Amino acid sequence: MIGAIIGDIVGSIYKYDNLKNKNFEFFKKESTFTDGTVMTVAIADFILSDSIPSQARLVGYFHAWFEKYPNKSYGNSFKKWMESFNNVYYTDFIPYNSYGNGAAMRISPIGDFSKVIEQAMKRVEFVTSVSHNHPEGVTGAQAIAALIVMARTEKDKTKLREFVETKFKYNLNNSVDFLRVNYKYNETCQDTVPEAIICFLESVDFEDAIRNAISIGGDSSTLANITGSIAEAYYHEIPEWIIKETLSKLPLDIINVINNFYREVSYEYHEIAGKIKELR
Predict the structure, then answer these.
(1) pTM of the full predicted structure?
(2) Which residues are annotated as a binding site for Mg(2+)?
(3) Hey, where are the domains in the chain?
(4) Which amino acid positions bind Mg(2+), per UniProt (predicted)?
């Protein structure tokens, strides 16, 4: 989860001002969290707080966090959907058949909280289909959550690649160098999720994964968010200076959810959870 938030913040200033190289200042004064962080936190808060889970309650969490931070680069369709709940009960929610990459950028808490892939897949469908009920939206989110679960213990990247290609039918044959030249801005799951996974697969550590994602251009904050969520699970190590700078750019209510979430998943992310507790 914190890996996704880091990617979101680092990528925020490059989303509409793309870079095509890895040599950039990781954090700038203007770097900030966007909708990716807000909706990721909404799902984490739902996981932590709702003892009687229902999709209507989940929509309520999305809406509550949206109202706290309404000006954070939401997609037009999602923003209109959120604003509709000013006059509609959550129980009356209607999915809008989205296959946008927002489905995958907010899903890391499900992967982090799930112990096995099958559990993650079911939970993803539950939380994703309230809005992104198009098959490509659900598939994109399931691919990332499942990969997070698998990457925590499987350190052979060839096996991780084969799993995604076989299970989710994504083409992972392109390289970061190829994408850096040819990739264009895209907000769909089917043209964001594979690219984010490639950026992870070619990385040597967490920071390098984020730099790969930023360097290919496109929807930088979302790409880096998704890449960061996988890289955190795989490397189990994020430099303290990165976590410290990230927390400095977040409001207290978001930090509290992050800290509470990592207290629940500390058995999987012991070192990262300890750093968050110490630095919060």
Answers:
(1) 0.97
(2) 34-35, 219, 222
(3) 2-279
(4) 34-35, 219, 222
